[in-house]
Specification:
Blueprint (H helix, E strand, L loop, with lengths): L2 H9 L23 H25 L19 H22 L3 H6 L1 E4 L8 H15 L3 H13 L9 H6 L2 E4 L1
Antiparallel strand pairs: 1-2
Length: 175
């Protein structure tokens, strides 16, 4: 066998010589917020809600921390409690949500809610589908807990969308 023949045969098993450039992940669409950013925003929003209810309990004759001893985890939540909670949420976050797609926590961490095409989501989509549906689901004794668990766990998919994001057709991106 000639030296040239051996080289041609061995070349069949050689790796390809084509240049392959890495694809920039940011070119595929908006830059998604990290799970930690979303969790941090949730903690900030929760602390703000806690503080506002604490202040309301000190200034008003209403006690937001009163516990009904007859209620268990399986008892439906009264609609009035959900209405108060939703009203407080809208007072704290409504303006930022409608104008910028952000809660106070999302604003503090530089992330916002948008549609998948990058446009600002409508107030009905954000407040109605994204938040109100979750509040209403908590009325149902078992389904509310299941919805909450599934909603939280779906963030671990590759697209980082929670169940409420899918229902409202929104994403959370870096602002």
């Amino acid at each position: 066998m000639a030296n040239g023949e051996q080289t041609v045969q061995d070349a069949r098993y050689a790796p390809p010589q084509a240049h392959v450039a890495d694809v920039d992940a940011a070119s595929d669409g908006p830059l998604l917020a990290t799970r930690w950013q979303r969790f941090g925003a949730l903690l900030i929003d929760g602390a703000l809600a806690f503080a506002s209810f604490w202040v309301a309990g000190k200034l008003l004759p209403w006690d937001p921390w009163a516990v009904d001893p007859n209620m268990t985890m399986w008892t439906p939540t009264p609609v009035a409690s959900i209405a108060v909670g939703l009203g407080a949420f809208v007072l704290l976050h409504g303006y930022l949500l409608v104008k910028r797609g952000q809660t106070v926590g999302k604003f503090a961490l530089g992330i916002r809610i948008t549609r998948p095409d990058g446009s600002l989501a409508s107030w009905g989509r954000v407040l109605g589908l994204r938040y109100l549906l979750g509040y209403v689901a908590t009325i149902l004794p078992v389904l509310g807990q299941v919805y909450g668990l599934v909603d939280c766990l779906t963030i671990f998919r590759s697209n980082r969308r929670c169940l409420h994001d899918v229902v409202a057709d929104t994403i959370v991106v870096k602002a």
